[in-house]
Amino acid sequence: MDGYATANGDATPSSIHFDILIIGSGLSGINAAYRIQESLPASSYAILEARHELGGTWSQFRYPGVRSDSDLHTLGFEFYPWKASNPIASGESIMRYLQDTADKFGIQKRIRYRHKVVSADWRSDQQRWRLDIQIGGSNDGEGEARRAVYWTKWLIMGTGYYDYESPMTTNIPGIDKFQGEIAHPQFWPEDMDYKGKKVVVVGSGATTITILPALVDGGVGRVTQLQRSPSYIMSILQDDAAWWEKYAPQWFVLRYKRFMFTLIPILLYKFCIGFPTLATTFLRNHAASQLPPNFPVDPHFKPGYNPWQQRMCLCPDGDYFKAFSSGRAHIVTDTIANVVADGIELSSGEKLEADIIVTATGLNMRFLGGIDVSVDGESVNVPEQYMWRTSMLTSLPNLGNIIGFWNASWTLGSDTASRLFVRLIKHMDDNRYTNVTPVIGEKDMERTVSASPLNSTYVKNAMSKMPKCAERGPWKPRDNYWVDNWGAMRGGLEDGLVWQRVDT
């Protein structure tokens, strides 16, 4: 229940206690809230959200055509399945789904909006986290920001790993000379008018694959995708209902789809990693079959890496490939020599004229939402920590961090993490422990590995900010939902964890 802090000079009317605090009200935060309500009904909890509404990524991203980059049968919640027939969904429909979920399960009333966590300090003498909160502020029309102190036994980070305040900066020579409009998808201008104009989209990832057909449908004059290196792209049917589904009960159909949309990507991933040559041939032939006749597959659809060394891009009903049949969509594989007032000069000598340049070059990654984390006032260097089951960090007691899968839907990893946290808290309560902290042995640290199997530029740039993984035991990075879920629900709670009872 809510109350006042009583120790260390923090006994102020703005000091509030909870058993559990969740940071972020996106997919991860809402999922974690449901699992807490379901399994820990006696625990007091709240969600602290820095923005004015729930949704996280889906609240902020407003670029043309914004949609999921994985299927909603697994990106959606297991406890409240996605019922629509289309597996790839628009950002707007995902927001409605999240709002409906929060309303239906009473989660909405637990969210405290415009509550930005500035810092979090674990206090050993109280066996709680002390959070410094900034509430409101001039930017949201609520006047001056005010500060508050929140205390919690458990802290769950549902902040994802993207920086919501600043995009990844890319060195584009001469970009300051451009006289037209420049837009980054993360902060798309609401008043941007691209109808009838010449647009160059710089990038080759999921965002570019989304924007290009949306611009064509929106009446762009000419849109050119400029890529330094291609990506692997697959078309996915938006309505693949089997004949028997209309005869089966809805609950069975929804479970079947979630199972199949979990299984097939895992099999595809294993196929790509185990047989890269065959996978490359399959994916290039798939692209060729979707493109207009005589469209050059090489070099535009011939990546310089093996499948799934970078994230696979999906396009619903092949809309990205179909856009090239419009006559208004084009693709160029080259590097930028210089940006000039009215376009981009390429290394090949070609010039792309442009009224608008879209820099879809990736997102800036940030861990723990950029919150300053400390223990008894001593700052913790997060990149030096190791991840236990990809869900907790060494040196940080009673802190759960939610990370999804790199090679599957985010929510699959989010849900296994939330189930694990609930299990840990139950174990703590049943045995009257006051804290649990991951501790890695020297032998396990002998072989440190990357937390991500991908070599995308934005991932490689962020590895110095990310915690570490090891090659064995609960320190291994996650790459398989079934294995991860078993570990969360049935795995041991002793290996790599130190449990303590401390009198306060």
TrEMBL record:
The keyword Flavoprotein applies. Gene3D superfamilies: FAD/NAD(P)-binding domain. Its cofactor is FAD. InterPro entries: FAD-binding_MO, FAD/NAD-bd_sf, Flavin_mOase-like. Keywords: FAD, Flavoprotein, Monooxygenase, Oxidoreductase. Transmembrane segments: none annotated. GO terms for molecular function: flavin adenine dinucleotide binding; N,N-dimethylaniline monooxygenase activity; NADP binding. This is FAD dependent oxidoreductase.
